[in-house]
C-alpha cells in the first residue's frame, strides 16, 4: 500500500508539526494519520486545484494570503477547494512570508477536517517532496518483491495433487482476501477460507447472482460489485464462448497494482487447469456417446459396468429419456453443468452428446435437473414417457417428437404425454398439410370475407360439439336453426356431406392443419 501521512510526519529530519482540530500541536486522530500520500506538490496560487489530484500533499508559504494578518483573504474558500479536491494534507512553510501559521487558516482546516502541519524554515519544500518520493519508491519495491514471492508460492501450490484448490487457497492467504470459484452453472464450487459465507448469506447471494450474469453473457468479462461493505471482484475463466467458471475475490480493500498482477497470474493458472479438465471431459464425452449407442442396441450390462467405474451406476429403470438442444457456443458449458450434476447425484443421470443435441437418461426423481438446465441456459427439451432400457429407442423417438413441439414455444421442457394427449391429427399443423387444408376450406373462407358471415367459426364449434346443433348454438349465442342453416351452407360450399364421419374428419383435419381448430 502507498505511504501515509503518519510516515511522512514521523521523519524527524523534517521537523514537521501537525495541528489537531483545535489548532493545537497535539496528536491527531488515527484516521487522519492513515491518509494516503501519493506525492507532494508546492504552490502559492490562490486556487491550485486544477494542477492537483487526490491523495497529494500541498505545501504553501501563504504568499497568496498577503503579509498583513488583518487583510488576509478568506481562508474558508481556499480550504474548501482543497478539501473537495481530495487533498491529503496542507503544509504551511513559516518564516518566509510570516512568522507563524495564520490562525484563520488553522480554523478553516479544522472546520473542513483537512490535516494541517507546519514546515519550519530550516526544512526546504524539496526535502519534504524527496522524503515522500522515497517512501513511495520503498513501497513500490516492497510490493514488487511481495508480488514475486506470492507468485512463486502460488506456482508451487499449483504443482500439488489438487493444484487448483491449492492455488486458490494460497491466493487467499497472500492477499488476505477470500477467494471463491463458481462452476459453469454459477454454483459455488469452492471457497477459501472455507467458512467465508457461513455468516454472510447475503454476500453469497450477491456474488452468485453476478457470477451467473457473467456466465449467461457467454463471453470473457469481469465486473466489480459492492456488498456488505466489501468490494467484490469477479473474472470469468476459460476461452471466448467456452466459459468454465468465475473467480471471485472479496475483501475490505480494493486491489492495488501488485495484487492485481498476482490475481492475473492465478486467473491464467486456473483457466489452464480448467482447460485441462475440459480436454479430459472431451475424451469422456466421446466415451459417453459410444456408450449411448451401445445402450440403444440393447447391451445394458456392458454400459452399466463401464458407467459404474467412471461415474456411478446407470439410473434405475424405468427411466425418462430427454433430448436437449445444445447450441455450439454453450455446448461445453452445458456439458460441464451436467457433469457436475452427475457428481452431485450419482445413479440418477446419464447423458451423452448426439449431433447437436444432448440425450439424457434420468431417474424419475431427478426430473428437476432437466428443468433447471433449461431455465439456466434457456434451452428447449423434450421428455419421453417412463421406459425400460430395452425400449430405449422408442423412448428416444418420443423425446425427439416432444423436442420438436418444444421448439414452437418458449424455452423449457415439453413432455411427450402432452403431445400424445393432443392426438395424431395435431401433427398435421406441423407438416405440409397446411396448403391442402387451406385449399379445402377456401370456399368457406372466401364466403365469410365476401359476406361478413361466420361459417368457418360456426363449423369449428359445431364439430367440437360432435355435431350437436343445440350445444353449438348455446356456445355461439344464436338459435339452433341458425347453426343448422350455416352448416348446410358450408356443406354446399365444401361439396361434402357433413353427416358422415369421414367428411367431418377431413374437415377437422383441414382446420387443424391451418391452425383454425384452436383459434
Question: What's this entry about, in short?
Answer:
The protein has helices at 5-9, 30-33, 75-85, 103-112, 125-158, 163-175, 201-217, 257-296, 300-310, 328-344, 367-377, 392-406, 416-422, 433-451, 455-464, 469-476, 480-494, 501-513, and strands spanning 17-19, 39-42, 56-60, 89-93, 116-119, 178-182, 188-192, 222-227, 230-239, 242-251, 319-325, 349-354, 357-363, 380-383, 412-415. It is an alpha/beta fold.
The pLDDT mean sits at 81
CATH class category label of the largest domain: Alpha Beta
Number of helices in the DSSP assignment: 18
Query: How much of the residues is beta strand, in percent?
Result: 15-25%
Helix amount: 40-55%
The stretches of 5 or more residues where confidence is low (pLDDT under 50) are none
- Mind summarizing the main beta sheet? 5 strands, mixed
Distance between the termini: 70 Å
What is the rounded Rg? Answer: 38 Å
> How many separate domains make up the residues?
4
Net shape: elongated
Number of strands: 15
Which secondary-structure class do the elements indicate? alpha/beta
CATH structural architecture of the largest domain: 3-Layer(aba) Sandwich
- Here the CATH topology of the largest domain equals Udp-n-acetylmuramoylalanyl-d-glutamate--2,6- Diaminopimelate Ligase, Chain: A, domain 1
Assign the CATH superfamily of the largest domain.
HprK N-terminal domain-like
Major sheet strand order: 1-5-4-3-2
